[in-house]
Design a protein that fits this description.
Helix content: 40-55%
Shape: globular
Order of helices and strands: HHEHHEHEHEHEHEEHEHHHEEHEEH
Keywords: Aminotransferase, Pyridoxal phosphate, Transferase
Cofactor: pyridoxal 5'-phosphate
Number of domains: 2
GO biological process, one term: amino acid metabolic process
Oligomer: single chain
CATH superfamily of the largest domain: Type I PLP-dependent aspartate aminotransferase-like (Major domain)
Structural class: alpha/beta
Number of helices: 14
GO molecular function, one term: L-aspartate:2-oxoglutarate aminotransferase activity
Protein name: Aminotransferase
Length: 393
């Protein structure tokens, strides 16, 4: 039987760059200890008070169908959080609750892209971006950023691909690079969107993890609120990755149509999950700071370790739970280096090529294990890279 081209071509064919991750997991299944610095999963669990709120809600009977747009208290809480952090007037009518940020990204592109439309995204990128664009029937168009710019996008590079495009997807704070887009960068992006009548889809799931500078939502820039869809999630800010609760914030008309889409696809999010998310947001920024504190601390550790050597370069780690390390001095690709490191020291990192061509010769390190093991693994990585460089002389 024939399957649709849309679903059979989601990955685009060829390697998806995740061979190192899969090899590490096979080693673990075979009983070989591996230090995993691969995926963005907190090493702390969801706070017990959030789980208690979830349990109280479920045991209290909130297990039936919940309102498809999201329960009103949660939509209002998200709107309040967005308005407080961005200064943009926002009400519950601007908010749709979704089953996580990934579902929100898919829905947003479904809302603005017709079949065959060009949808722009920036390289390096979160691994699912091109696939979700193909999944809605659009054509993914990557725009490479540059390591020498600390992966801050250049407006002229985006503009060169903007003619005939429908949307632009950005992510700040950025996964995988840790870059927080500057006001200058975002002003340039906004100008390109307005000049080319692009929808801007802004993935802001790491907005609570900013170590240097400030997070600016492009929805807050002049004349951008009516052409911007903001993606948010409880996953990173509140360590609720498995709960699958996120949102889209945008113009009321777009949200109304997205509610229709949700009615015919996901049919909402479990009520007891939403109640737990509402409780979590009510705890204020203190809880978000508690969740992000380990990554802030480990970033400082990493800066101290990397300052003591000359082989491994650090892309300025301004936000998110990752480090992007420049290994080009070894003359290896990111994938080659990662495989050699895994074989030699049982340390798993993600090749830069997993996230696009722009990060070739780099690796992404997730700061998601305890401080002592993280410091030891990073020192081992640096020593290993230095040994490769010396051996090649």
């Amino acid at each position: 039987m024939h399957l649709s081209d849309r679903i059979t071509h989601i990955t685009g064919g060829g390697s998806d760059g995740w061979d190192v991750f899969y090899k590490a997991r096979r080693m673990i299944e075979d009983g070989i200890p591996v230090v995993e610095l691969t995926i963005g999963e907190h090493d702390i669990r969801t706070d017990a008070s959030i789980l208690e709120a979830m349990d109280v809600s479920a045991m209290g009977g909130h297990t039936g169908y919940a309102m498809v747009p999201g329960i009103l208290p949660l939509r209002k809480a998200v709107a309040e959080r967005i308005e407080k952090t961005t200064g943009v007037p926002t009400t519950y009518e601007n908010v749709l609750i979704t089953p996580g940020g990934q579902a929100a990204l898919f829905a947003a592109h479904t809302a603005v892209c017709d079949h065959g439309d060009k949808a722009i995204y920036l390289d390096p990128y979160y691994a699912t971006y091109p696939g979700l664009i193909r999944g809605v029937g659009a054509i993914p168009v990557p725009v490479q950023t540059r390591a020498e710019d600390a992966f801050q996008p250049r407006a002229e590079d985006i503009a060169a691909h903007a003619q005939g495009a429908t949307s632009l997807l950005i992510n700040t704070p950025n996964n995988p690079t840790g870059t927080v887009y500057s006001r200058e960068t975002l002003d340039g992006i906004a100008d390109v969107c307005k000049q080319n009548d692009l929808w801007l889809i802004s993935d802001e799931v790491y907005d609570s993890q900013v170590w240097q500078g400030a997070h600016i939502s492009p929805r807050a820039l002049p004349d951008m609120a009516e052409r911007t869809l903001v993606i948010g999630s409880m996953s990173k800010s509140h360590a609720m990755t498995g709960s699958r609760v996120g949102w889209i914030v945008g113009p009321k008309d777009a949200i109304d149509h997205l509610i229709n889409l949700a009615t015919h696809t996901t049919y909402g999010v479990a009520g007891f999950i939403q109640d737990a998310a509402h409780f979590a947001l009510a705890q204020g920024p203190e809880l978000e700071e508690q969740v992000s504190a380990p990554f802030r601390r480990r970033r400082v550790l990493a800066q101290e370790i990397l300052a003591g050597q000359n082989t491994v370069g650090l892309i300025p780690a301004q936000g998110a739970m990752y480090l992007m390390l420049d290994l080009r001095a070894t003359r290896l690709s990111g994938e080659e280096f990662a495989l050699k490191l895994l074989d030699a020291h049982h340390i798993a990192v993600m090749p830069g090529e997993s996230f696009g061509a722009a990060a070739a010769g780099h690796v992404r390190v997730a700061m998601t294990i305890d401080d002592d093991r993280f410091a030891h693994a990073l020192k081992t990585l640096c020593a290993f890279a230095d040994g490769l460089v010396n051996a090649a002389k």
